[in-house]
Amino acid sequence: MGSAASLASICSGALSFVCTVGSLCTGCWQINSKGSVALSMRCRGLWGECVWDKFVKIWTCDVFSSYLNPHPAAIIFTRAFLITSAVAGIGAFLCLLLGCRYFSCCQGPMAKHRCLRLSVGFYLFSGLTSCVGVIRYCVYVFSQHQYEVSLSIPGFPSFEYGYSLWMAVAGSLGALATAFTAYYEVRLIKTPSTNPAKEHAGNSIRTVQTYV
What we know:
Blueprint: H1 2-25, E1 30-34, E2 40-44, E3 48-53, E4 58-63, H2 73-99, H3 109-150, E5 159-161, H4 163-188, H5 196-211
Antiparallel strand pairs: 1-2, 1-5, 2-3, 3-4
Helix pairs in contact: 1-2, 1-4, 2-3, 2-4, 3-4
């Protein structure tokens, strides 16, 4: 059971990091369709936006000229929290590998126990920060869309959340799942006794009782 939990935590931890970094590198957090027959589609991301013309079948991307330009607070908030989550995910995964029973970097049971505890804390922090960033972005997009709908503009485009956002959701859920799996591993590992004399006496008593 312990080996299955270790394998599951490593796989989910790696998947969480890949999804979080992928959501930062790709630029399709929000999808808008223009026109009554949806002749074009626009993908908005955290770093720019791209337009797909279905008639000529060409992608046209526009990246922000400077990341220091004034942007909506929700975009900056989501960027900061996703980057923080990715950095925390790196530390969490390293601690998870050091605490895994199949890696011989940390030989002592106490050292592995501490590394697993650190990975639980890092993964909880990574998953929660990613969740907060995603929720803040979703609220911003939905409120902005509702405001534009209230203006009753003819032919106003609809919107939906893009695949980059769902990758960030998968990354945050994977980080939380890894935290709970690593916590289960921590409960499985028995903390070694810090009093060798007492442990030796206990072993002697058990040996005598078994002999009798």
